[in-house]
Amino acid sequence: MKKFYRFTIFSIILIFFMGCTSSPMKKYYQISLEDISMQKSQSFDLKSIDKILLVEKIDMEEIYNDYRLVYRKSPFQLNYYSYKFWIKKPDRVIRDAIVQYLSNKKVFNKVIIEFLEWKPDLIMKVRTNIIEEYDIGENWFAHLSMKFKIIDFKSGEVIVTHKFDRKKRLIIKKVDNIPVCLSKILQEELDKVISNLSKKLK
Fold first, then answer.
1. Are 83 and 24 in contact (CB under 8 A)?
2. CB burial class (10 A; 0-12, 13-18, 19+) of residue 171?
3. What is the model's pTM?
4. d(C-alpha 124, C-alpha 112), whole Å
5. Class assignment of domain 26-200?
């Protein structure tokens, strides 16, 4: 009886240990527009704009504003990864990336996210419709769909509108590459927005 009891306890401990060691590790991701090497043909020479820009909170499609990364294998079903997470909810991840990128590039006099001591000249409104991994057959894609508006703070006039819906194929099919490709898409499209704004303000 004692031997059976000991064997049972040992089996339970062994199963528990194997379960713990076989569980996938959680991974956390962010969007970064800082360290992406862009080809010269794809990048823009962003000129300084003598304005203060307010980047509003990102308007996010609710199903995508989840800590878990989203993937889909068809237009009809959306899934969440169990062990792949954003470091913050995507609306904050995207806004932080935009603000940091434009601040570091010194495109504007100042980039702010709320009214404090600074009164903005321009307001950036961003709508994110889709941010996901989209698997089509044997190919994996980073899929990003967004809309930008730049508005004159005083008049309320819309100066620039820019929208896109892009898929970028992963050369290596790893979830770790999804945030990298999403970052590349966002940087390319954000550069277009700022370039268009610079032309309109001439």
1. yes
2. exposed
3. 0.83
4. 10
5. alpha beta
Q: What percent of the chain has pLDDT over 70?
A: 83
Residues 65 and 93 sit within 8 Å (Cβ to Cβ): no
- Please tell me the distance from the alpha carbon of residue 165 to that of residue 173, in angstroms, as a whole number: 21
| Per-residue pLDDT tens digits for 47-75 | 789 999 999 999 999 999 999 999 999 98
As a whole number of angstroms, the distance between CA 133 and CA 69 comes to 8
* Alpha-carbon span 7 to 182, nearest angstrom: 52
Element (H, E) at 49: strand 49-55
Calculate ∠ Cα 182-186-189, nearest 5°.
140
Give 115's pLDDT tier (boundaries 50, 70, 90).
confident
| Domain-wise residue ranges, the chain | 26-200
